[in-house]
Amino acid sequence: MDDIKVLREKVKDLKVLFVDDEEAIREGTGIFLNKFFDDVTICSNGEKALKIFKEEGDFSLIVSDILMPKMDGIEMVQEMKKIDSDIFVIFLTASRRVENIDNKLSNLTLQKPLSFENIKFVMQKLGDMKW
Amino acid sequence: MKEMFELTPLDIKADMSSDELDELLKPLVEGELERVFFSTIHQRKDKTTYPVDVYIQAIKYEEIDAYIAIVIDITEKKKIENELLDKEEIMLAQSRHAAMGEMISMIAHQWRQPISVIAMDANNILADIELEMVEEESLQTGAEDIIKQTQELSKTIDDFRNFFRPEKIPEEVFLDDIISDALGVIGKSLQHNNVEVILDTDKEIKLKTYSRELMQVLINLIKNAKEVLLENSVNDGKISISTKDDGKSILVTICDNGGGVKDEIQDKIFEPYFTTKGEKNGTGLGLYMSKTIIEKHFLGRLSVYNEKEGACFEINLPLNIKDSGALDG
User: Fold this and answer.
1) What is the pLDDT of residues A86-97, one digit of tens each?
2) What distance in Å separates residue B146's CA from the closest CA in chain A?
3) Strand ordering across the sheet containing A15-19
4) In which element (H, E) is residue B280 found?
């Protein structure tokens, strides 16, 4: 694995959209993502996130909670992929049995909260897929 | 037979001294009582023992003062009594477990976020270290936040300890506080299921009682009401709790709008192992144990009646548990 600063250099310009309905999670993970990506947009629900996705466009990485009221992560990503199928999607779940969530929609499904170990792996994957 | 006639009552008693037997027979011998009764252990020729109830009656037999003794082997009776006690102990434990189960769900729910936040604080510190972006200020903020979260975790443990502390003697408490405690355990679950709680209580009511046990009974009854509302898919589920002091006793009433209990089964619902829920959800012990606890430990009454929208469970408690001479433990 490349050095973390090298990895960061490769991915920091990617535009990120982060969605979670819990405030404490948005705060903590938001700060965390901002250490690695320069442009992070944070949303509290799927509907708002979809709207911003359509209006602003250009998002490369979507990090989202699955279980959310009104519009859940899966539905949201389905809609987003109709517009841009190239997005890299990471689902975050509170459930410990991550393997059970079998869907072709995401590139990665990780346990909450997003950890330091996870992010290195994420950056490596993103770096390898560099547009 | 000859052997037996040479024995005295003391010989067949397994573990009694001459003095002890004299003491038991004294009122009879001195004419104070016509009959005495005591339980003891007898032994057979082969030295094995068995429990007995002994009745001795003073009589006149052809002008002679005599005594007639009736000895009843109570081995079977004792066996059944012990089995019942065991079963009751098991059911008491199961009922306590049900209330604890609610508490544990609540803990799991309450702990999730602080644990997440602590993990995030730690991840942020690690990221700073690796990216060589460590700043004293953010280290401090992170550390302080971790401490704040651990305080949340501790509070939950303290609540748990408090709610299920053992109680050897009755204590004086406000009834309202016991109800608050019960709602502290099951309240979140009610909120989660959109059940509204309506309180109409007399805040002055104080009683000397086993507050933790009463709390567990309340949790049990509220949980029952919640489950009825869920099973019958009642959209605007309501549970109302009211209290009243009518001078002789205290009444605690828990009503729901879940449709009520059918007349045919109103008696049955308090029986052990009777349940209207499916195999998975109902143990059929909650109401039976609640009734047993209220009747045996509080010398009170638990009953049910239907109102317009649903069922009402009413707990009737004597004002002072000491006055009523209720049993310990």
Assistant:
1) 899 999 988 776
2) 12
3) A39-43, A15-19, A61-65, A88-93, A108-111
4) none
- Rg over CA atoms, chain A: 14
Best mutation target, A116, A119, A120, A122, to test chain B (most B CBs within 10 A): A116
Contacts of A114 in chain B (CB under 8 A): 120, 123
| Predicted ipTM beyond 0.85 | yes
* Residues 42-101 (A) with a CB less than 8 A from some CB of B: 94
Report pLDDT digits (tens) over B244-274. Answer: 998 889 999 999 999 888 888 888 888 776 6
Domain B2-73 has CATH 3.30.420.40: no
CATH number of B171-318: 3.10.310.10, 3.30.565.10, 3.40.50.1240, 3.90.1150.10? Answer: 3.30.565.10
Q: Decide: helix, strand or coil at residue B192.
A: helix
Q: Is the pTM of this model over 0.90?
A: no
Q: Which residue of A has its CA nearest to B141?
A: A28
Per-residue exposure over B228-263, b if at least 16 CB sit within 10 Å of its own CB, e if not: bbeeeebeebbbbbbbebeeebbbbbbbbbbebbee
Residue of B nearest to A112 (CA): B116
Task: Give me the domains of chain A, ranges plus CATH numbers.
Answer: 4-126 (3.40.50.2300)
The Cα A40–Cα A16 span in angstroms is 5
CATH of domain B78-163: 1.10.287
Give helix then strand counts, H and E, for chain B.
7, 10
Q: Is A115 in contact with B119 (Cβ distance < 8 A)?
A: yes
SS3 B42: strand
pLDDT below 70 — which residues of chain B?
273-274, 276-285, 320-329
As a whole number of angstroms, the distance between CA A20 and CA A38 comes to 19
Angstrom distance (rounded) from CA A115 to CA B126:
9
- Count of other CB atoms within 10 angstroms of residue B196: 12
* Residue ranges of domains in chain B: 2-73, 78-163, 171-318
A5 and B132 within 8 Å at the Cβ level: the answer is: yes
Please give the Cα distance from B186 to B253 (Å, whole number): 17
Distances (CA, A) of B32 to B21, B25, B63, B67: 16, 10, 20, 14
In DSSP terms, B188 is beta-bridged to: none
Amino acid identity for residue A93 in this structure: T
